[in-house]
Structures are given as structure tokens and as C-alpha cells.
Amino acid sequence: MQVLRDELDLRRKTEIHEVEERKNSQISELMRNHEKAFSDIKNYYNDITLKNLALISLLKEQMEEMKKRENHLEKEKADVLLQNKQLKEPLQQAQEQVSELQKKLAHYDKDKEALTNTKARLKVTQKELKDLQWEHEVLEQRFSKVQVERDELYQKFTKAINEVQQKTGFKNLLLERKLKGLLSVLEKKEVELSEVFAASSLDPGALSLVSHKLEDVLNSKNTTIKDLQLQLARVCKAHNDMLQTFEAKLTAFGIPLDNLGFKPLASPVLGQALGQGPAGLVAVPT
After folding, report:
1. What is the pLDDT of residues 226-250, one digit of tens each?
2. Which residues have a Cβ under 8 Å from the Cβ of 221 and sit 6 or more positions away?
């Protein structure tokens, strides 16, 4: 029993020793592992710290650079704001010009169409102008021809009116003198006849016969006087009709009467009422 107890005790001690050795071995292993892990983690965190320090340093440099850039940008911003302030008025003017140009652009098609229509009308107007110029040249030629004809007719009328005035005036003068002479002779005959009647002692029958003969002579003389007056009236009427025709022709050709150089004279006859008909229709005065 004692031996069994000793064996068991020895075995227990041996097992305990083995357990302790394994424990110590494990502890040593754990310590080595912990030291290695601590060393690794220390190196890891050292690396991280170094990297962080380098990053911090880099970030500080970047921050300083960014501050410099910010200051530079602030300065540029101030310059740009100043430029914007200076360019605000030109910008407003440019915007107004753009607005005006947009309006003009909006009316461009309309103006273009109007220009096309104007060009078409211009072509038509130019053609009409050429036609009118040609007509004008033709009319000028015709006008020149008409002027020549007018001048020739004017000269003929002037010559004719002078000749007619001379002939009519001379004929009127002869007729008036002849009429005055007949009237004078008639008056003398009447005076002589009255003296003869007063001085004679004729019987009533002979006196009546002489009176009848004298009346026949007087009637014949009166008829001659009336015929002469009628001829004179016809000549005057023809003269006046010719003057009216001449004046009408001059007016139709646009020639003023003042250009004649003389004033045509009408020929009124005392005791005659001249009508508006032809000269041959002058009535015998009653």
C-alpha cells in the first residue's frame, strides 16, 4: 500500500512536473509570442506614427500652399470684381446692342423681302422710265415740228391779217367816202328841189308828177345807200370774223396776242347791228 501510494505520489509529482514544464514551456512560448507581437505592433504603430507625421508635415505644407493660393485667389477675386464692376456698364451697353441686333435680325427677313420687292419695282420703274424717255424724245421731236409749223402758220396769219387789214381798211374808207358823197349830194338835191318848188308856179298835177319822180329818184338813191351800207357791214363783219378766227387759232397754238407786235382793230359800223353768224347773213337794216 505504501508502495502504491509512493508510486502514485511519484507519478503525481512526475505528472505535476511535466505539467509545470509544459506550463512553463507554454508560458515561455506565450511570452515570446507576446514579445514578438508587441514588437510587431510597436513597429507597426511606429510606422503608422512616422507615416502620420510625414502626412501631417505634407498636409501642413499643402495647407500653407492652399493658404497662399487662397490669398492669391482672393486677390484675383478682388481684381475680377473690380473688372466686373468696370465692365458692368460696357456689358449693359453690349446687351442693349445685342437686343437691338436681335430685333434687327427679327426684321431681317421682312426687310429682305421688302428689298426684293423694291428691286422688282425698281426694274419696272426703270423700264417705265425708259419708255417715258422714249416717248419724251418722240414728243420733243413732234413738239419741235409743231413749233416750226406754228411759227410758219403764225407768219402766214400775220401776213394775211396785215394784208386783209390793209385791203379792208382801204375798202371801208372808199365805201364811207362814197356814202358820205351820196348823202351830201342827196342833201344838196333836196335843198335845190325845195328851192325849185318854192320858186316855181307849177300846177298841182305837174307838181304831183314831179314829186312822184323825185320820190322815185330818192327811193333809188336810198336803195343805193342801203346797198352800200350793207356791203360795208358785210366787209366789216368778214373782217371781224377773220380777227376772231385768227385770235382763236393763236390761242389754240399757245401764242399770246401780245406777241403780234400790233393790236388788230375791229371795224364797227354805225347804224348796223352785226350778229354772230357768217358775214353773208348780215341783214338789211329796216
Report:
1. 787 787 778 777 777 877 887 777 7
2. 182, 186
